[in-house]
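REQUEST FORM: STRUCTURE PREDICTION
Request ID: SP-0412
Submitted by: Lab K.M.
Chain count: 1
Length (residues): 799
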Amino acid sequence: MVLSIALFAFLIYVSGLAVIQIATGRYRLDFEMHVAATGVGLATFGLITAVFGLLDVPLAWHWYAAATLGLFVAGSLRDILSKEVSAKARAKVDFFTPEMWPLVAAIGLAALLFALYVHGALFTPWLIDDDSWNHAVAAKHVAINQTYHVDVSVRARMAGYLEPYPVAYPVLMGVLHQVQLMGKQAMGSVAWTLKFFNALIVSLGIVYFYLMMKQWTLSPKRALWMTGVLFAIPCFMSHFIWAQSLALVLFFPAFWAMEKARGEPRWNIVAAIVVAGILLSQPSSAFAFVLMAAIYWIVNLAMADRGPIPYGQPSPSEGRFKLEEGLWQLGGLVLGGALSLIYYIPEIAKFSWRLFLETTTRTRYESIGFNMPGVGASVHYTPWDFIWAPASTQINQPIGMGPVLFLVFAASLVWWCMGRRETAASRLRMIVLAWLIFTTVGILANYLPVRVRLFPHRFWAFFAIPVAIIAGDGLARAVEGVRGRTVVLAVVAGGFLGAALGLWGFGPALYGLTEFPVAGTILISAILCSMAAVVAVGLGAHAVTREKTPARELRVWLILIAVVAGVGLTSGWAKARFEGFAWWEPGTEWYRARVKGPDGTVQVEQIELLTWVRLRASLAPNTPVLGITSTDRRVIGSDMYERPLDDDLRTLREELKDLPLDRIDTGEAKKIYDFAVARKAPLVVVDYYWAARPQRTQALAQARRVEIRESVGMTPEREMQLVRRMVTPTPREQTVLPLIEAQLVREQQGVEAERQALLRVEQLKKSFAESGYFEKLPQTEQGGLTLYQVKPPKPDTEK
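STATUS: Completed
RESULT:
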């Protein structure tokens, strides 16, 4: 574990530092630049991976270390030999100044968020949802085989995140896991690697966001307020394990470098490398970044050659934006796209355009377009979804802000609109407002009359960015002219008050009252927006007075305590509870056994999953295990060793799964035995994966049936009467009755398929017992799976 953490720090810091040196010739760097280098290094790793893949260089940790050292030597030589280093690069800078204390505070916020996220990730004793299990296989494939390449025939039969899907994220995880396996297989846990470093990467986004906003506003205090809002807002990011964790975090170093390029065009090279890193991480986030970057560039270009606003108190960043600066920024974006082609052109040539698109979008070729709703296919978000932060939400993307934070955001937005002349002349405000409109439309895409939907549910994370900027700007302006010590004490006191209220039970009590009818939601929204307007006017009048009077400082102190405590109670409590202390679901591929409860009713329990967890605890990590009825996702994700993406094993599993019941005999047991001996697998697992799929079919059919039934206001009792032809359907019911009956047929088919799967599993166990090739280990059989030890081959078998 220590080695992988050290390798991660070395790779991202040294490579990022080298890229900055090579691009800018800057050899005198302050603390802020050293911190920013880690964000550049995260993106550089993806570009190095693309080059390695093109040249067939093994994806081994020592090759990455060598490449990083090579970049560092090149950067040092650039500093030493360059005769055209800019005056800004040569200027003497202090390593640490008092203005960098807000950066230290932002790092502290990131550390708190990391502690929460990593606790939540490790709190759940399994990997969560389906994505993380697929990433475990991809990371293991990279760690063992030192490549992200797969055969075209194999890729067409598997789900996962290797080529031609962007591979920066799984390769990073695989290389970090690879270090853990250095001669000590029992020490390496791919699940721990994914959980720990995913949480770390997401948390680093807090620091990079601060750097971006500090560069945009040239105000460390204002940037810190914005960072604090992003830290607290529930809908920004979760510790969900997927490539968006890396891609979205890289948004901030990209915009940071693009803004720095205004005064020094060389920074566009850094921006291009970070943009390439985004494009090599995840397709959907890359698409969102391209649109947000286009908005950023268009607004900059539209406001080019305008001087500072001649009225009011302009933001420090509102200096003249020159047309040539916008052209340089466009060049950086184009160069970033061109660098990403190092990976994409060979992939398209290898897999064909059709398979490339199907794999990267995870959608059938005929369905690819601008109507790809993903998990948000039928979700219509209401105002209450924006106002409230639920304590239980989607694990891949939480939603909501919290009432107090929503009020602060709304008041700040009203304040911006009231100062429309200042807003119209501000690049920052115009960009952020355009982002707000874009991300809000993205969330509410299901309401659009034209079906233009690209993963509406994922837009909550992008939406949190402009919200944090607007709300943070309002808070920062409200405390201008007040001593910093007063502000810090108020924030700390408010934080403690909010935490205390949550621990005293106000949080659970508050979150027990979250269901409101539509009329109540509209009423609450109207009240909060009206309050926001009043608060905005009050804040505006309050900010006019800049004198450091005791009365004003006392007012600010009390207001901030109330605001921070309210945010902690209505946003922070929900975020902390969900992200740090909730057990998240493992995905859709686990069989739920039906057992009788104490009262005689049938209950569905995760017996199989819990048995896998117990088996994982009883075996050393990376113990070779052959999951004959299972999947490599289950085995590898549970920290047991199986050859990743073994096509022969996949073929054997598929053949066995489709065998008729009377064909599963000792002959099949002998075939499995020979396969296990050839793979040098001492243990074989028989579980209930075969039954999990039809059970999933039942659940989906039932959910669809309920959705259809409720769309016409039909009760379960009425549905039963209609299906049994006990009553005559109304014309409206007649239109949906065939659909309901079709789902009932699917449910029944799923029930029968589940029954047959369970019979095949039991027959397989019986054939194992009769064959004499396997020895059952009864201490591991606990209702969810059976573990068998493969007996040593006899001499004639060895021959």
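NOTES: The chain has 33 helices and eight strands.
Reviewed by: T.R.
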